[in-house]
Amino acid sequence: MTEITQLLTALASGQAEARDRLYTLLYPELKRLARSHLAGHAPMTLEPAALIHEVWLKSAGREAALHRAQFFAHASKVMRSVIIDHLRERHADKRGAGAQVTLSTTALEQLAPPDVLKLDDVMQMLARADDRAHQVVEMRFFGGLELEEIAELLGVSVPTIKRDWRKARAFLFDALQT
């Protein structure tokens, strides 16, 4: 069991002092994740530190029920949500902000980088069509988790996750072409 998992377990059992140590351990990885989320976007006023603080605020109390991989999947989802909200706000202020995100899968690389707001709309469509495939994309693409970690978190086999990943990529490819 890693120190992070141990600290999450300690938080779950009510040891509040574990929270500060957990933050110190998680900060470098959260910063890498935040930079990754911000990398494909047009110049933004958001900084990685701001995303990390949002994750920490929105995770207060929740981290106690999670283990390491779940925490990072949740952190990635929160970061993406904060970026989407920020871009929607900017887009409302400045029509045509033109923020871009690049999907890095073989099939999707053939497309021009989609508008991040359109990507969010397509992700919502995927969630309605196939929630597990949506979760796989969230964890794999946005959270950077390995297929084995995702399978463990979702309680299914790795081949099932591979099928969901292929299905989700095909769905995204088709939906982003329109």
TrEMBL record:
Signal peptide: none
Keywords: Sigma factor, Transcription, Transcription regulation
Transcription regulation is among the record's keywords: yes
Keyword Nucleotidyltransferase attributed: no
Domain RNA polymerase sigma-70 ECF-like HTH: 1-177
Similarity comment text for this entry: Belongs to the sigma-70 factor family. ECF subfamily.
Protein name: RNA polymerase sigma factor (TIGR02999 family)
Classification of source organism: Bacteria, Pseudomonadati, Pseudomonadota, Betaproteobacteria, Burkholderiales
